Amino acid sequence: MFVSRDFLRYLGPGFIVTVGFIDPGNWATNVAGGSEFGYALLWVITLATLMLILFQGMSARLGIVTGHSLAYNVKRRFARPWVGVFGGSVVVACIATDVAELLGGALGFRLLFGMPLMAGAVITMVLKIGLVITGRYRHLERVVVIFIAIIAACYLVELALVKPDWALAARGAFVPHVDKASIAVAIGMLGAVLMPHNIYLHSNVILSRVEPGDEESRRRLISYEKGDTAIAMGLGWMVNCAMVVVAAAVFFRHGVSVASLDQASSTLEPLAGSLARLLFGIGLLLAGLGSSFTSAMAEVNVLTAYLGRPEDPRTKFYRIGLFVLALPALAIVASGVDSYKILIFSQVALSIQLPLTIAPLIVLTSDRRLMGEFASRTTERVLAIAAGLVVTAMNVLFLYNLAGGSF
């Protein structure tokens, strides 16, 4: 099939988003899902990825058509109390994401180099702030694409080493099943894929591709965006599924209960060999670093947009905000709380916040005065609302279960 050079030059924004859903939070929830429930929760990743393609496409289209980010459009469209609810909750979600990314980078440094957790977290924070301040979107895209390629290669080799049951994996990927025991992990896996900050981020990074033009140029950009998103999210789906499959084939098969990523790494060696452990460490480090870059961009872009400040890394306010927003995550890592539990809890928190990101996105992209001919059609709107209701229903089930109920 012929692929135009223009399309190949366009590729990138979707990959910036994809590294966010193969981050350390995904590693924690996927390892938990695979080690505790085998292949049974793979369907959560499939469903969440389909939802992700829908919502990321809507977010990117909003950026292309309006020339502004989702945060900017929310601030312009909604009354102040709602702006406070949407903005405040997504900043908290961004901080939860940042905790996962810092921990992932720190754990990667510890697994590979024996470095103390806090030292690894500080190095990760310095690297992410430095790259976001000094880099451009195009440079960051190249770094992220390289990281994703290496992570995918690591898991491809691991799949060959662990010899999974592909029939069970295929069934788990497409046949839904959830019960009281698995609902918390399923919610965490959902939140790890459908990340609020990524939905905000896509509408922002897409602006690096937007130039003044007519309806035809917008139509072409939207077409390219669909291809970019489908390719990038499809790769993310494969990597996430590979994480669950490896955990199921190694830990669940041998009845090993995994309580931390450190334990997952150390247990891999006797069960799957030293190469598997090395690849696990390399992948986790790159996932932590790559996703920390994009989460940093997302949280400071959201904050500056909601406060009416320029979303420009060259400004003093942006740089100060980048540093200040990193401190809560660093403090949580320094507190010594169980890192594995923090990772899983952070992903559950993202899922609970998600409806507060989806709702304004649906309202904005359905507005014909804002979007013109590019407004969401009935089918897309119905699918988006249905997806939002599924997320909300799973959150309600989780909270009900947490309160002592049963289903």
Chart the SSEs and their pairings:
Layout: H1 5-10, H2 13-18, H3 24-37, H4 42-66, H5 70-77, H6 80-113, H7 117-134, H8 137-162, H9 166-174, H10 183-193, H11 196-205, H12 215-252, H13 261-272, H14 274-306, H15 316-334, H16 339-353, H17 355-365, H18 368-371, H19 378-402
What would you note in describing this structure?
The structure is a single chain. The protein has 407 residues and is mainly α. 80% of the residues lie in helices and 0% in strands. It contains 19 helices and no strands. The chain is globular.
Order of helices and strands: HHHHHHHHHHHHHHHHHHH
CATH superfamily: Amino acid/polyamine transporter I
Rg (C-alpha, Å): 20 Å
| Whole-number mean pLDDT | 87
Briefly, what CATH class? Mainly Alpha
Spans with pLDDT under 50 lasting ≥5 residues?
A: none
Features:
globular, 407 residues, 19 helices, Amino acid/polyamine transporter I, mainly alpha
